[in-house]
Records
---
Amino acid sequence: MTKFNNSDKKKLRILSIDGGGAKAYFTAYAIKKLKEEFDIDLFDYFDLFVGNSSGSVLISMILFDIHPNTIYYQFDAEGERMFEKETFLTTINSPLFAKYSNRVLKEQLNKLFGNITLKDLYEKFNKSFLITATNFNEGKPVIFGSPNIEGLNPRYQRYLLKEAIISSSAAPFFFSPFMEELTEDWIIDGGVWSNNPSLVGLMFATSHFKKNYDEIEMLSFGQSFVEDANFKPAKRSHVLRNFQSNEFSILYSASMLSQMNFYSLFTVKTLGERYFRYSPEKEIKDVRLDEINPDFKEYAHEYYEKNKKALVAFITEGKNQKYDKNSEKRYN
């Protein structure tokens, strides 16, 4: 496969990957198949990499030049193992009632990245990147990134790569927050405000890289169907289960899905055919963040087969065969 020749040096190409827990299998499978069938490494085709939660794991593995088969294995064989249940007593005493321990995730990240810093990652591979999280105490967005990008809060740039990923992946009710040593602030999942981080990439493309919209191309991987949320109120029972699963968490899910769709709507309106969204287009029942549903895996395979030619055309040539003027209707 001939590498993409970005002869127009003014053009900035962005790879954006949503969070989604175990559902990130959807993207990991596509990454593996692109390498197997077309010898495509996404590292070679993009200038700016943006990720949230499991998307931050994926972009970091791509940036670290980890083989796509290993990336796939991480979300296939190892995916569900990341969700190691806490005991009931641990859960009720943990911040935000975390259902799972992040012990396995920490072990895996340490094996993959060791103590590499954000600066080390940039200097080693010379690629720009952004990872989203949230400061729970201050109610502010947190953006980790490569040191070449101006406008980032220096407070968060001293983190190790694995700490940035743990912070970005600390989904409320699933994992405990990452606690800053100096401030003791809780840093949690960027999905609170940016589970689809495409708008973050777009913001820095214009503010830091000084690009106009017509100079930007973006490939955005998602893990969720645009209507993939269960809004049926759960039955009230124990106070903890009520807090984790009742209308509050349903409202949180609805809010997260709404902002994901708005970010896609905004991006497709501003970039038009220069925005390619690769994400589920139908509902699969009983899909959850903490397990890999066999039907969802099968759908991921079917979706790739159906869309691979269009995906490859966009990656290698910048041609969007899926775009039409009604594309935005999917998101509103």
---
Amino acid sequence: MSQVSKVLSIAAGEVGYRAERAPGERPSGHQKYSPEVPGLEWSQYQPWCATWVSWVAMKAGVVDLFPRTASVWTAMQWFKNKGRWSAYPAVGAQVIYGTSGSTHTGLCVGFDSTWIYTVEGNTSLTNDANGNGVMRRQRRRRDDYVHGYGLPAYSEGIVTADPALKGKPGYTYATQASGPTGSTGDSSGADKYKIKKGQTLAGVAALLGVSLAALLAVNPQIKDPDVIRPDQEINVPKQTEKPKPPPEKPTPKPEPEPSKPPSGSSTYIVQKGDTLGAIAHRHGISLAQLLAWNPKHQADPNLVVVGQVVSVKGPAAPTSTPRPTLRPVTPKRIAPVVEQPSKHGKHCECCGQLDGIKKELGDIKKELKEIKEVVKPKPTPPPTPDQKPEPPAKPKPPMETKPPAPVQPEQSKPTDIPVVPQQIIPTPEVHLAP
């Protein structure tokens, strides 16, 4: 088994493992990997994504190809110092996340022009800082979150999308590739396949039902997958069975798993370990079509949660609703309004009362007019020539006012009370005894 196949096989075998967290423990919890990696026992209860990669490398027997560290940033610097760093994905590479290259890490198992496919420790579908599980992830290849890739120096070489490494020893350039999902055989004792004219290595891999990376792993003599010749014999992995030609009209069979939708269902409930790419493949549709039917996942196709309902069929064509038949409405004829002649006359009882009131008002107005004439002041008639005008009254002389008498100061008057002269009474001397 090739080194990259062993690394990815051990990583895939850990999918589904979850760390435990007792009450009061740190969010990372405790897991089995830290105590088993010599020198990293102290990392228990710490974020363990980098520790998990070191554990996988130890179990695969390639400890010299990966850094032994619990630090993501240290792992990135380790590959850079060895000149094994690239901005392009590679099968079996250690992918580094975060704008500064110190947030998260995992192992790349495949890539295409849009996505990278990984197995990661201490992760979750909600991208928690401490996801506490080993999972398969699908992420956008050109996302800013993807910082770069460390390329281990596998003995059989590594398949990479880096065009600068095309043709260099130890590197095989490919625009898309996927790693083996399990163990694959090596070249010794492997089945053989003869290349035919017009075939490509990627087409042969698809025909044989294996990944391009698995085919290259058992054919280390192929340095460039784009250069093969007719009648060239290549090795085929032992465990791979040649696929049978599909029937012309495949009959869909009911799926035994309860997680798969029944026939005719237009929705699917996400199960543990599902990805949108896997759901699309399972239902025979493209990922682009699945995203078109599920607009809420277009912003981040990597984010799917167990229990979510995903549409796997497009909306049904709208059926035409029969329009109701409209019956003509006959307008109702409205009879014209004819003004009836008044029935009142001079012999009407109410009209007689009105005439009496009018008469009383006239009498009241007449009396008021007579009262005004009586109370109206009569004008003074002008004097006749025989009458003489009265002389104007003479003004009275002003009254004389006398000045007030001056106030004289009050003089004291003698009284008749006699004055008694004061008598002096002698006081006797008092002698004290010695």
---
Amino acid sequence: MSENFEKYEQLVCREDEVSFKLKTYQEMISELLMLVHKRGMRVLNLPTVEEVLTMLHSAETTYRSELLDIRLAKTILSNRIGESE
């Protein structure tokens, strides 16, 4: 098996991991917003909600950037693999 193909398979696995993390962050953000909708600010401290939401969003953005980098690397490798055939 070629080195490029092994790297490609590793990137596919990493892409799956990062995609799952992204879905988890998106779900957590949605649930937090739903909690605010259901419970309101009488029960929740707005600055704390904003802080948590910002942290989740920041992490989500980091993983989105990583996913983009992975997809670019996969595209480059698939081109190299195709050229070597």
